[in-house]
Design brief:
There is one protein chain. This protein is α+β, with helices and mostly antiparallel strands and 280 residues long. It has helices spanning 56-65, 70-79, 129-140, 146-159, 199-214, 227-239, 246-256, 271-279; strands at 5-6, 8-15, 20-27, 37-40, 44-51, 87-93, 98-102, 111-115, 118-122, 169-175, 187-193, 223-224, 268-269. The chain has two domains: 5-214, Aminohydrolase, N-terminal nucleophile (Ntn) domain (Glutamine Phosphoribosylpyrophosphate, subunit 1, domain 1, 4-Layer Sandwich), CATH 3.60.20.10; 219-279, no CATH class. It contains eight helices and 13 strands. The strands form three sheets. A six-stranded antiparallel sheet has the order 8-9-2-3-10-11, covered by helices on one side. Strands 1, 4, 5, 6 and 7 form a five-stranded antiparallel sheet that branches. The chain has a two-stranded antiparallel sheet with strand order 12-13. Strand 8 (111-115) and strand 9 (118-122) form a beta hairpin.
Length: 280
């Protein structure tokens, strides 16, 4: 086999209410995020691993985009692949249908579980409990944001044993139509830990940083900027080297701190922005 052996565990999943699809994965493999996770809004999500056929990603998304179900996508991809006995694949389609495939020549322990809105799978695992933890955690966290659910799945799977060769890299991908940066991207989250002793924990840390910079606080939770708060903001910004009118100073500071996505005028303020400004 000429393809890379991506011995790993992963879960492809969706949140139809939020209009999001995503994949999370961990492996004893350098930069697993460059091979395993694929997703497209309103089409589906794919995880391709074991002796990974990377073409399963774009080719599978093309099938899903045309309306193929998860089962149909798995069948069409694997039936056309002479190396299918060595492949592992998880697919979730636009309607939340799911399918998982494990070729008979994948190294033990290898297998998968598919359910409403998710496909969990892994190979070269300590045992089936790793995949069971992925599935059970996804089902138990219904109602939470998809990215958070997927990270909880990853942590639970690692705690259950994970890849029997150890840890090295992890990745999280979540997409939503116009749900990414400035509403001009479909990528909500795309985080990768390419080489780390504790990639699952490091991926969670990166996600916390991502939420600080790019997360969204509901407008109902924003604070009104009264005269006292306005004066405090002006003074804090001045001390940080941003004098002048509040709207200009706040925008300039937020741009430097990468918090511009959390700024919308100066009549109201995101409490996360206020907390960060006070922390400075």
């Amino acid at each position: 086999m000429g393809e890379p052996l991506v011995a790993t565990y992963s879960i492809a999943a969706c949140d139809l209410v939020a209009g999001q699809w995503g994949v999370v994965t961990q492996s004893k493999f350098l930069a697993v995020g460059s091979v395993v996770p694929w997703a497209e809004p309103n089409a589906g999500a794919i995880a391709t691993q074991a002796y990974a056929n990377a073409r399963y990603g774009p080719d599978g998304l093309a099938l899903l985009r045309e309306g193929a179900s998860a089962d149909e996508t798995v069948s069409r991809l694997t039936s056309a692949d002479d190396g299918r006995d060595h492949r592992q694949l998880g697919v979730v389609d636009a309607r939340g249908g799911s399918a998982t495939f494990t070729g008979p020549s994948c190294f033990e322990w290898a297998g998968g579980i598919a359910g409403p809105g998710f496909a969990a799978q892994g190979n070269i695992l300590v045992g089936e409990e790793t995949v069971a933890a992925l599935a059970a955690t996804f089902e138990a966290t219904a109602g939470n944001p998809l990215a958070s659910r997927l990270l909880e799945c990853l942590a639970a799977a690692q705690a259950a044993g994970g890849d029997r060769r150890g840890q090295q890299s992890a990745a999280l991908l979540v997409v939503e139509r116009n749900g990414g940066y400035a509403g001009l991207s479909d990528v909500v989250v795309d985080l990768r830990v390419d080489d780390h002793e504790q990639p699952v924990a490091e991926l969670a840390r990166l996600h916390r940083a991502h939420e600080l910079l790019f997360g969204k606080t509901p407008q109902a939770d924003w604070l009104d900027v009264d005269d006292d708060l306005r004066g405090e903001l002006v003074e804090r910004l001045r001390r940080l080297g941003y004098p002048g009118p509040l709207d200009e100073a706040l925008a300039a500071w937020a741009g430097v701190e990468n918090l511009e996505e959390r700024i919308d005028g100066v009549d109201r303020i995101d409490p996360v922005v206020l907390q960060e400004l006070r922390a400075r």
